[in-house]
Model the fold of this input.
Amino acid sequence: MTGASPKISAVPGKAGAKRRPSAGSFLIHLFVGAFALACLYPFALVIAGSFTTKAYSTLHGFTLWPGVGGLTLAAYQSLFVNMTFIVNGYKVTLFTTIFGTALSLFTNSMMGFTLSRKQLKGRRAINFYVLFTMLFSGGMVPWYIICIRYLGWMVDTVWALIIPMLAGPWNIFLFRNYFTSVPDALYESARIDGAGDFRIYSGIYIRVSAPVLATVTLFTALGFWNDWWLGLMLIKDHTELYPLQMLLRNIISNLQFLQTMEASPQVQALMASIPSDSVRMALVIVTTGPILLLYPFAQRYFVKGIMVGAVKG
Done:
């Protein structure tokens, strides 16, 4: 007795044929592509506006192509009038971003790993303490008093741009939630083999946490790169330690002050020739351009890392 064998289609050209996209799939791709172009349009307009003359923008506004007569480098010349300060600002910002991000990842991941251990005594109280600091703040005055009176050794040093941003409750919880999703069997087997907690943390948990590491790295690097507040509050006498954002903020403030003050006709004519709106757009390009290079490397892990932090409790 033999069973019925399945029928195999012998129609030529059918096997391995590619499936044609449906009309719905085509419309979805078309919509997403149009939306992506719409998101790129403002950024392209900012790039074009940073090269637009003041006369052209006054008559025609900002366009994607201002024409040969409307192009100028005056905005960038105004920003880079003292190239030494700008280069030094880049150096300070790059150092604080790279070194501060590395220290912050180490601090937050260590705290997250500790809070992910269920055998930790007082785990609920520590979790509540970290959550409380995320929801409520003591305010600027207590923070400033602590930094000046108790952490005064770091004022007017590069550490003033790093230490206040090392620990972040949101990043700690992202690490904690991700480490909680790692199977306990890995931890228990490593403990049986004689590994300590730091060995397990550095040799196992960090090696399997690429999504959350990429996500927190992006958040933290953006925070260090865009920070100017710490430079304003904690850098007093050593202007060479000003980060890039602080320097560019001072440039914009000085331009606005010179445009509003009473001056000689020659100075007024000079200030009228500086395209203030184009300077602001050039400022956006100078400050955000380099950090945008970090996103493509972290994008593949970004969504996965955020979803882990959102789903786990």
